[in-house]
Amino acid sequence: GMFEKALLVVLVSFLSACASEGLAYLMLYRTDKYNRLRTSLEVHVKKLEKKKEGDKKKKVDRYEDQVKTLSRDLAMVKIQSTLLVSLSFVVLIAFLNSFFYNQVVAKLPFEPFSLMRGITHRGLEGEDWTDCSFLFIYIMCMMVF
Fold first, then answer.
1. Helix (H) or strand (E) segment spanning residue 37
2. Which of 10, 22, 70, 89 has its Cβ near the most Cβ atoms within 10 Å?
3. Nearest to 74 by CA among 34, 116, 117
């Protein structure tokens, strides 16, 4: 029934959140490059704070440039992992969309305003706006997990 479908969507969203964290850990947080950059950035930020207290502007500017460069490099390393996780979510949503096509997963206790209907009623036929598709529940669960 509807309850089982909704529970399945909650379970899938929980598992996909776990999988994305696992991917991020494997592809990012445990890599030597990421850890080297993060440590180097922390050291340079501390040095910059000390230099700001008493040194000449030229040295401070040099450290600021190094911090900016390290921050940019760290962001580039992070974005690769983020793109892969995002791509996996797109694939999962496409799969779930075909799996739950035109299936009511839940009944809303209210009629959503027109702007929200695109999400709550996505992939459903008819005009009973209290019918809820998997996408709305999935999105709400991903906010929680």
1. helix 32-54
2. 70
3. 34
Question: What six digits make up the tokens of 50?
Answer: 């000390």
Contact 5, 105 (CB under 8 A): yes
DSSP for 69-133, please give it.
HHHHHHHHHHHHHHHHHHHHHHHHHHHHHHHTTT---EE-SS---HHHHHHHTTT--SS-TTEE-
At 134, the amino acid letter reads F
Q: What is the pTM of this model?
A: 0.75
Residue 87 · residue 19 · CB < 8 Å? no
Token code pair at residue 10: 């909650």
